[in-house]
# Entry
Amino acid sequence: MEFLLIGLQQLADPYVFATMCIGAILGVIVGAIPGAGAAVTISILLPTTFGMEPLNGMTLLLGVYCGAAYGSAIPAIMINTPGSPVAVMTAIEALPFVKRGEARRAMSLAYSSSFVGGVLAVLALMLLTRPLAEIAKNFGSAEFAMLAMAALVLVIVGNAGRRAEATAALAFGLFLATVGVETAYATQRYSFGFSFLLSGIPLVPMVIGLFAMSEALVQLTTREPPAVPVQLKGTFFQGFSEVFRYPKSLFGSSFFGILCGIMPGVGEFLAQQVSYVVARRFSKEGHLFGKGAPEGIIVSEATNNAVPPAALIPMLALGIPGEELTAMMLAVFLVHNVVPGPDLFLNRPEFVAGLYWTLLAMNFVIILFLLLATNTIAKAALINKRFLGIMILTLSLIGTYASNYNFADVGIAMVFAVLGFVLRSHRWPITPILLGLVMGPILEGRIRQALGGANGDMTIFITRPISAVMVAAMALLIIFSVRSSLKARKGAADAR
Amino acid sequence: MQEEGHDANRLESLALILIFTALSLALLATLFVATRHGPASGGWWTRPALAPGVALLVLVLANLMTLARAWADLRATPATPDERAEARRKIAGWLRPLEYLAYFAGYLFAIQHMGYVPSTFLFVMFLLWRTGMTERRWILAGAGFVIGMTLIFRVGLGVWMPAPEFYDAFPDALRIKLIRWF
# Structure
């Protein structure tokens, strides 16, 4: 109880509350702009949060993360272009609503199911993080190493249809993590005599180059006809009662989103896709999915809004980020010397409790903002792509330079911008590069510790029970995904 | 739904995979040059080459697998002349982002010699002109964006930027304000 009261005290801090509101509102706006989105905004904001208190910095970034998940539904419904890939199914399902003249109903359903999914996920965060951290207290280096390995395997498995490319991207990220001075022998690895590489590939310029600048380059070099939005009139309260007519879909997809958020490597996009397919399969009105079924929007939005808060569970409890945005946020922890993991509750209870309450309050702030300002926010969705590209590119300089006041960082960002542009053009996954860079040191450090303790005996990973279970789970996952890939390929070949 | 403008061409993808494979092989080949041994103080698991070696080996294997798949696909369904022409056009398109990055590098250079606000203003205006957005409303929007950015990042968040030398010509009181806000 005291723990929760400390959190409320943190939320009552005007600076924390103001940061939360700014983050949430900014998140909704950028979420509503196709091409901007949470990853671009968080990567640019990341260095500016280093000067803030950890809770303020995290609140701002989480506001953007959660707000963008809500906001992406606006262009998905109004101009049939999802603000980010996580609203793809919403866009598909909303089109028949718009054609029927029920765009307002679709928006209302999206908001209310997003709210339910988001709030349930925060409650799951409050209830599950501490017990998971308590379990993790029994983990040794072997368990943490296999946990990190399992997260990476999930990242690959989650990229169905692009697993070889995802593996390459992940391996490249892991390789990048080894660049710089190596601790055990104090020698250099792949620095090629460049002093700016001695401390490794800097995270912030890499993130800005890969996610923000590459997006700016795509926007600047792509020509798209301007979209025509539908007009919305009236209020959005109707959906709040309507979503509860579909409790199975609403709560089922919320819990599925929470589960996917907890599992590293899954992310909102895959969660939403799988949840939609499963719901269509088990719903009594499954045949109406894709033809303007309220359940389709409910499932899509409840799932993708449940993922962000749930993705914090493994990060806070185990120190393992599950997707690109929590991986970026890990930088805020590291800059402030806040070590996520089992001891976080002991060392920084006020931070964790504050985070819980701000996340919960954030959902109310966002929904209030959406109910009042949807028509105004929708104008942001119509922003000219080239102007957006100019803004992102200009902001990228501030982001890269402000993190370290080093122009070499801007050069590194430019290299990753080209890489990101080429990968985006081919729809190759870029998130595994970031996860590899962030997880690399954790994995290498834990493997070294585990093998050091066992005098180099590799059976340590299968003789300790929890570690052995993780190894078995990974093996099963790999076998299952290889089998399903082969089956799918055979099916495609037969069809030809 | 509106489609994105970038659709992968099989030959373009093959060219890209070839480049990635060559680069990853080159990195792997330099493993023992780029990771030097220190005095032996730990077991095999602490060798500096181990982690990058494993990562690069996986990278090479994954690239080879992608390459083999792309090659097999092209052998099964050879590329049409149209596809070849499109591939040439798309590969030439890889240079397009370099143009904007060259402007960005110029912006970076200008900041050190002209100060943040003037160089940002010029950069934004130049990009507006380059992208054909020369209408008055876009110029005003660009100017507003520069002012907003300066207010948020320089005045509000106090982000520091290198001061150009000509600021030294101003009286101290003004110079400090210029360094801090412009």
Notes: Chain A touches chain B through 77 residues (CB under 8 Å). Strands of chain A lie at 180-182, 187-189. The two ends of chain A are 63 Å apart (CA to CA). Chain A has a mean pLDDT of 86.
